[in-house]
Amino acid sequence: MTISPTAPEVTTAPLLSAQDLHVTFPGRHGGPRARAVDGVDLDIRPGEIVALVGESGCGKTTLARCLLGLVEPTSGRVTFDGRPLEYSGRPLKAYRKRVQLVLQDPSGSLNPRHTVYDAVAEGLRIHGYGGDERTAVAGALSRAGLRPPERFFLRYPHELSGGQRQRVVIAGALVLEPELLVADEPVASLDASVRGEILALLLRLRTELGLSALVVTHDLGLAWNIADRVAVMYLGRIVETGAVEQVLTAPRHPYTQALLSVLPEAPGTPVVLTGEPPDPSRVPSGCRFHARCQILASGEAERTGVADACRNQDLKVLSGGGASQVACHWAVAEVPERGAGL
């Protein structure tokens, strides 16, 4: 199912912005610290849907948790609506009302002992909502596509289908009238027949409510169907970003090319990456992807004259804006007029 999102104007000031963000965790048994997020700039504008794409362990979930205020950055900062995010007290509580999380597993995120009504109303009660709770819950369920909402009030999660449970989770986020949703693999646990319905719902909410969204996923097909812009993450850093059509139809970074090559509809032979999966406690020198890079392994980087740079010269952090950018010595050497992306 192909859905055509309507992108916002690129001149709009960011709603959420990460600037030179780093998150490290203590190493095992006193070893080197794990650099889960290792220098990230990322902007999300009002009404924009950004897909954050990468394999497991690349740091995308840690980045999302940091943007939500669940993890405090080691360095760098997050700003929302022009103001730096505070990680304690009332400001953080107020922020979490404006930025809501949608988890990938509705069965795990819904309390089996709570009715649908209580699950959706929980956020209102936490934040001391002073209006008509029943009306707010009914409105959120209706916007999430569960109609008539009263029919679902007294149901329990086990009485619902997977798609209905995910809609309840989305309703629980919508009831607080947020400005931004962070959706972590929002359709990963759903049947293929339901995935398109949930993606269409997220797009409709963007159109009707002006919601922004960060969609965290390893699924490039999902990014194609829902996002305005895509950011490809590898070993703690964004290595390619730009409009979704541009990045996914003409990928410039070898890692993006490898991810796309294994899609069922991709032409040619899938790229099999060599080497070990990335270890955030041992980030290699030079390009962090060079140990697994098919361009370097094939000799193409040597022929282009960038092999030494790939192994030894670090790349700058990509800016958080909407311009097409790539952090790759070979890609810039191949298309020098686009070198400003570094």
TrEMBL record:
Query: ABC transporter domain location, by residue?
Result: 16-260
> Which branch of life, at top level?
Bacteria
Pfam families in UniProt:
ABC_tran, oligo_HPY
InterPro entries cross-referenced by the UniProt entry: AAA+_ATPase, ABC_transp_ATP-bind, ABC_transporter-like_ATP-bd, ABC_transporter-like_CS, Oligopep_ABC_C, P-loop_NTPase
Enzyme Commission code(s) on record? 3.6.3.-
> Which SMART domains does its entry note?
AAA
BP-aspect Gene Ontology terms: peptide transport; transmembrane transport
Which family would the database say this protein is a member of? Belongs to the ABC transporter superfamily.
**UniProt-listed PANTHER family:** D,D-DIPEPTIDE TRANSPORT ATP-BINDING PROTEIN DDPF-RELATED, TRANSPORT ATP-BINDING PROTEIN
NCBIfam families assigned to the protein according to its UniProt record, in alphabetical order: oligo_HPY (TIGR01727)
Q: What protein name applies here?
A: Glutathione import ATP-binding protein GsiA
Q: What is the lineage of its organism?
A: Bacteria, Bacillati, Actinomycetota, Actinomycetes, Kitasatosporales
Its encoding gene is what? gsiA_2
